[in-house]
Write a structure and sequence with these properties.
Structural class: mainly alpha
CATH topology of one domain: DNA polymerase, domain 1
Strand content: under 5%
Helix content: 25-40%
Largest sheet: none
Distance between the termini: 36 Å
CATH architecture of one domain: Orthogonal Bundle
């Protein structure tokens, strides 16, 4: 029988990178805090939640109750890549 080694730390000695945060990973309080950290008013988290969870809208341009400038700032907060090489959108869609 083959046993797997127990690794106390990653081979390079660094902690593995955390996966990107996604809107669906946060509760409402977490979404409010994340939106506020981007310089938006906290109630925008409720608007994003309504679009994402209630209407299944992921396109920021279709979120007409969110001001255009706010859509731009929120959409710009998306990370670039996941470990699989695909593009991931932090707020709108997962990898």
């Amino acid at each position: 029988m083959t046993t797997l080694p127990v690794l106390d730390a990653p081979p390079s000695g660094r902690r593995p990178a955390a996966p990107p945060r996604h809107l669906a990973d946060l509760d409402l309080a977490g979404r409010r805090a994340a939106v506020a950290a981007l310089g938006e008013r906290e109630f925008r988290a409720g608007q994003l939640s309504t679009h994402y969870f209630g209407r299944l809208v992921r396109d920021p341009d279709a979120m007409t109750d969110v001001p255009v400038a706010a859509r731009g700032r929120l959409a710009a907060a998306r990370p670039a890549r996941c470990s699989g090489g695909c593009t991931t959108a932090r707020w709108w869609r997962a990898c």
